[in-house]
Specification:
Deoxyribonuclease I, Chain A; alpha+beta; 360 residues
Length: 360
């Protein structure tokens, strides 16, 4: 038996520059959100990285704490993007998740259960046992292909050094083929400069994949998203990826990074030592910038830093309300704010009812 979900793209009216008329557009949201150590409370003997996130571990990570964490993240996802598209994000890239169970449990939370989110996830090689994944709304997105791409940092790290794979997913976003790369680049542990070659390696791996996709599919619509552990102006992003913050400087086949202007204005996704960083980025191939396109194109971006996601008092007031203070659960969300981009395409004059099958 098949159920059907109605595609509920909201039609909004946007003024058109140099024209007297206004046009209506359908809207879809794409989000990236680092879930900050979303482990389940069970001890996985194959993964030493989850030892602290068990009832007897350093964080006293009980089933009750886990359920509160899921509830908080689900509440954040419930609100993201709904001012422009009522179903919330069509795609949610994420990092710092332990396994498929935590994604299934999150999707089953009452706050977002009616969206029927599904996910793409592969177990990765990270020594802490944390992976990247893609949640998707089946009313908007259909997966065509998925695989992981290894990031080899062994030459820079101790023998056997490992980091997160890049998750590659190709699919149909309400009829348009898109290619999504979900990343979690190596951290700055040991210092920004000392660890920079690791992130440059991750960036180069992503760039090779993008170049290969564009070679095989000229004009492909590509989204690279993730916790890059670097800012929009860092060399890994600007020089290795070649992502430009000015649309006018994006050449065909190049990459556009809408977060450069946010960063220059002091807007970030995580704070440390009274300084904002903007590690959580969603970067787009040039095809998304074609204003005359009848397909999905880029509209605008947002750091989703609503008050309920912020620490309300104390030294870290205004920073993301993280899950733990040291090892003490403080009923938070994540130490990162989510980022969102909005895509639009011209709405038909008389929109037909769009229904997509949800297979069981």
């Amino acid at each position: 038996m098949k159920k059907f979900l109605t595609l509920a793209c909201l039609a909004i009216t946007i003024p058109v520059a140099c024209a007297a008329q206004q046009k209506s557009y359908e809207v879809a949201a794409v989000c990236f959100y680092n879930f900050e150590n979303l482990f389940d409370p069970e001890d996985d003997p194959r993964n030493w990285g989850d030892d602290d996130f068990t009832p007897g571990g350093a964080y006293h990570y009980t089933e009750a704490v886990y359920r509160e964490k899921l509830h908080n993240l689900a509440e954040a996802l419930r609100q993201i993007g709904t001012k422009l598209t009522p179903d919330g994000p069509a795609l949610i890239g994420t990092a710092e998740i332990e396994n498929g169970r935590v994604l299934a449990d999150l999707a089953a939370q009452p706050e977002i259960r009616d969206r029927h989110y599904r996910y793409v996830h592969f177990e990765g090689p990270d020594s802490r046992g944390i992976d990247v994944a893609l949640l998707y709304h089946p009313g908007y997105f259909k997966v065509l292909a998925a695989r992981t791409v290894a990031v080899d940092i062994s030459r820079y790290a101790e023998k056997g050094g490992r980091t997160r794979d890049i998750l590659y997913v190709a699919g149909l976003l309400a009829g348009d083929t898109v290619h999504v790369l979900v990343n979690h680049w190596p951290s700055r542990r040991g210092g920004e400069a000392a660890s920079a070659p690791l992130r440059a390696t991750a960036a180069a791996t992503g760039k090779r994949l993008i170049d290969s996709l564009l070679h095989d599919h000229p004009g492909a619509r590509i989204i690279l998203m993730g916790d890059l552990n670097d800012d929009p102006v860092s060399p890994s992003v600007v020089k290795v990826l070649g992502a430009a913050g000015d649309k006018r400087k994006v050449t065909p086949g190049g990459l556009y990074n809408p977060w450069v202007q946010f960063y220059k204005k002091g807007i970030g996704t995580l704070g440390y030592n009274d300084t904002w960083s903007l590690f959580d980025q969603i970067i787009l191939s040039s095809t998304w910038l074609h204003r005359d396109s009848t397909r999905w194109r880029y509209y605008k971006a947002e750091v989703f830093n609503r008050d309920f996601l912020k620490t309300r008092s104390g030294r870290y007031k205004g920073y993301p309300h993280r899950s733990f203070d040291g090892s003490r659960w403080i009923n938070g969300y994540s130490d990162h704010f989510p980022t969102v981009i909005y895509l639009i395409r011209p709405a038909p004059l008389q929109p037909p009812l769009r229904q997509m099958p949800e297979s069981r």
